[in-house]
Write a structure and sequence with these properties.
The protein contains 3 helices and 3 strands; from the N terminus they run βαβαβα. It is an alpha/beta fold.
Amino acid sequence: MGRYSLNGRVALVTGAARGIGAATARALHARGASVALVDLQAPDAFDAERTLALAVDATVTSFGELDVIAANNVVARVDGIGPFPHTRWKATNRCTRAERTITLHE
């Protein structure tokens, strides 16, 4: 693996249940990282700041450190073509901002 080896590193991947998040988790693991996974589903997704802070704490407690955070959440529910209620936009935006804030803060 050479220069891309992550042996001995610990990663936390959000949005890891499927899609890009799952692929990211597999790729990090293939490079040797220990990987902690988190995925939020509604209604829990709207308490993202608290849940993600707990995930960071649990990762550090379990693995002793945290080297990589792959912030990969997307909270969007599309019910077809039409208006997107402002309240749903605010909730979606709040979840996405919370993850980015935790990523930068930690």
